[in-house]
Task: structure prediction
Amino acid sequence: MARRAAYRRKRQNRFGMFLAYTVVIMLLVVVAFNSVELTEKKRIYQQKEAALEEQIAAEEERAREIEEFEKYTQTKKYVEEVARDKLGLVYEGEILFKDEN
Result:
């Protein structure tokens, strides 16, 4: 009987070790697949981040241009251009030539 009990314990021990190895291998496979997914997500997020940084740079440039235009609109030169182009005004004694179009 003692031999049989020892054989059973040895067999149960092997089965237990097999189950433990199987669980560890399954966990490694799951971790590997999740790692691949996370790497892909990281790459996608890096691309999105780069695109957003480009948009930010473009908007900052646009804001700077708007500020420059705002300063320009407050100058005498701008007022003269608008008066000439839109209102057709000229200085006294100035002759205006127009095309026949």
